[in-house]
Design brief:
By secondary structure, the protein is mainly α. It is built from eight helices and no strands.
Amino acid sequence: MTTNFDFLKQVDSDLFKIITEAEKLYRDEYFEQCMTQTRRFGENVCKNVLGNTRTTESTFDEMLATLKDMTNGEEQEKEFIDDLYFLKKSGNTSVHSVKVKHDGMAALECLQRAFEVAINFAVYSQGANSNILKLRYDTELLVTGKKSKNSLAERYTEEKKKTLKKVQSQQVKKQKKQQSYTTKSATPQKGFPFFWAIVSLSSAISLGVIITLFLIIKF
């Protein structure tokens, strides 16, 4: 089955097995166990990076402290250690939690952080191909086991086009409606209004009365 960590298989098969198990736990909705497994992954990565420089360090905290002392202050190193700390903290929380939270979002973030750790480990520690740095975590692949056809950027562009097309369609409909209303208002009304019919009749009667009175007076 294809996973987000396939690139790690050739770099370190043991780490690959640990983290792909975490993805499987996520798919089965064992989110707490998934977070614990990503912690295990982070700890083993830390061990591998330290290698022979390890002396008395036996805990994850001690190894992280040593690793931090070895860094040169570069941004990539800082992010790498921050991600490892995050995995440690999240894993500890899931292990010692009294209640099972079923927090899928927290587990997903752990997997994403583990993904970044794996990339940095593969490229900067093991000398893997730098093209790996272009990889992005695919949540669709995580859930379905199938790679999404389009990248996140492509999907964003596609959705943006759909939204723009929808807005333009609504604007066209609105303009047509306004034009229809204007045309209707400008069109003269047909027929003879009832009010003016009454006025005309009253005028005719008044004129008739005046003529009659004039004739009576004259004759």
